[in-house]
Every structure is written in C-alpha cells, then in structure tokens.
Write a structure and sequence with these properties.
alpha/beta, 4-stranded parallel β-sheet, 9 strands, about 40% helix, globular, binds phosphoric acid mono(formamide)ester
C-alpha cells in the first residue's frame, strides 16, 4: 500500500509529479467521497500538525487528532502502539504520526490497513518536511539543479538527514557546515556520505557559505551540547540582515535564509523575516498545498513513491 515513511523511497519522477500536483491544488475540488485523516503526535508540533490538519480540511476530510497519546489514549493502560494504530485505522483512512523512536514507529505501522505518513520519526527522517523544503526552493528558483544549499547548525537532525537524501536523488548541490563544538553531530550525519566543513568563527562560517543560494538552518535537537556551546554556535553562525544586503549589492546574487523551524532565540536574525531573503515563512503556505497533494494521492490510493 502507498505510504510515506522515508524520502529514500521517492524517485526524482515521484517528486516532480508531487510538486506538479501541489501547484494544481489551489484549483482542485475537494475529494468527492469525504475521508478521515488521523493525526497521532507523540511529540510536540506546530507546523506539521496544523498544516496536515488544514490540508485535510481543505480536501473536505474529517480529522481525528490525538496530541497526548501516551496519557490520553488507552496506551496509558498498556495498549501497544501497534494495537492503538490498528484501532485508529478502523476509524480513519490515513494516519499521520510523529514519534520519538523510528524503530518503534516502523515496527508498529507494519501491516496496518491504511497508509501511514511519517510526520517526523526519531532522529531518522522527516520526509514531508523535506518535500516542503524542496518544494519551496522549486517555487523560488527557476531550476533547483543549479542551486547550492549550505546545511548549517546542529546538522545531525531528521530534517537534515532527509534533505541530504533528497538532494542526492534530485542532483541538488549542497555542502554541510558544522561548528567545531558540534563536530560529533556533524560526523553522525556523515554516515550518509556527505562532505563536512567544520568552522569555528563567524569569519570561517561566512567563508564557508560564500556563493550558496540557500543557507538552511537544520532545526535544532537540543541534544549533546551545553547551552554555552549552543550560544557560541548561534553567535558564529548568525547572519545579520545587513550582511545579506551587502553580499547582494557586491555580488549581484541573493543569499536566502531558510529554516524548517522551530528556531531558538538568537539562532537567526529575525529582521530577515518577511524580506526577500527569507524563505522560512513562505514555506508555511507551500506546506499546505504540498501536504494536500500528498494526502489526496494517499486517500485516492494512488502511488506516491516507488
Ligand atoms: N518543521 C517542523 O516539523 O515543525 P513542527 O515541529 O512545529 O511540526
């Protein structure tokens, strides 16, 4: 059955088809037969949960939302994750789940009778976020295959992990830049085969991002480092609005700043928000049409990936 567990199952043709469908969504009608989409979130979420909810509603679907399953569902009485999801599958036509452990999630969804969308599983993958990221870039740049992305920050995250896979699939150039204080995390992302640049000052960071089209701040996991180290990383990887303006004037090329969000205070210059350099907030609008296109195909039992 069509599901969406990993970005690694998407071919470049699958992605192109989904992006074309997302562009058409504003002109499409709701589904002829109303369906139900269940949102089961074991971890907090703002964007993923709300954009899937609004996407489902714009398709004319009902939603079942459980945001505290371990305390508010019968899992609190010892029910297994699989039995809980098998029950949800009796009430819903599709399940979107966020879970802190990818192995538990993958075991539990095995054999379910409805498609399951990975809404962020452990530190493994967040495939629909990556589709939103790349869809946003495809709406911004004429040809994503001529752009370069710098993946920066606490790079060992599920969003970065999915992004490097999708870049590899689509032939999008990227470089991964981590702070020396976070080198261990960078080396963990390297298991996917990426080239890593390690920086330790604001100047070396600016040198490393020179010429890229998008600086992608991978969303922050909060693991492994002290708060003092995080503050040093935020300081050294901070890009002030004035710097973006100066680079555009001196090179004629715009550097965009993007984060799948959430971000921490001090991590990014919030004065960039709403300027032509910002892609994080435009992505919110694109996320709804992308997730509508994905849900439409899953609910109509059409394939979404190989
Ligand atoms: N980008 C993202 O997954 O955000 P949320 O955690 O708010 O869903």
């Amino acid at each position: 059955m069509a599901s969406s567990h990993s970005i690694q199952s998407y071919s470049s043709t699958d992605v192109a088809m989904l992006f074309e469908a997302a562009r058409r969504e504003s002109h499409e009608s709701p589904l002829t037969t109303p369906k139900t989409v269940a949102l089961v979130f074991f971890q907090p979420s703002t964007r993923t949960r709300m954009s899937f909810e609004i996407a489902a509603k714009r398709l004319g679907c009902n939603t079942l939302i459980e945001t505290h399953p371990t305390t508010a569902s019968s899992m609190s009485k010892g029910e297994t994750l699989h039995d809980t999801l098998a029950t949800v599958a009796c009430y819903a036509d599709c399940i979107v789940m966020r879970h802190p452990d990818e192995k538990e999630a993958l075991d539990a969804v095995h054999g379910l009778s409805v498609p399951v969308v990975n809404g962020g599983w452990g530190n493994w993958e967040h495939p629909t976020q990556t589709l939103v990221d790349m869809y946003t870039f495809s709406r911004t740049f004429e040809d994503i295959r001529t752009m370069t992305i710098a993946i920066v920050g606490d790079v060992n995250t599920r969003t970065s992990r999915s992004l490097v896979h999708l870049c590899d699939t689509l032939g999008v150039a990227y470089r991964v830049i981590c702070h020396a204080l976070f080198e261990t995390n960078g080396r963990m992302l390297q298991t996917t085969g990426v080239e890593l640049r390690v920086v330790d000052t604001g100047e070396s960071f600016k040198e490393a991002i020179r010429g890229v089209d998008v600086v992608y701040y991978s969303n922050y996991t909060g693991t492994g480092q002290t708060e003092a180290d995080r503050q040093i990383m935020f300081r050294d990887m901070h890009i002030p609005l004035e710097y973006l303006q100066e680079v555009e004037v001196s090179t004629g090329k715009r550097t965009h700043v993007y984060s799948p969000l959430p971000r921490r205070v001090g991590e990014m210059d919030t004065r960039v928000d709403g300027t032509p350099f910002d892609l994080s907030f435009p992505a919110m609008r694109y996320s709804v049409e992308l997730r509508m296109a994905l849900l439409r195909r899953l609910l109509e039992k059409l394939p979404v990936s190989a």
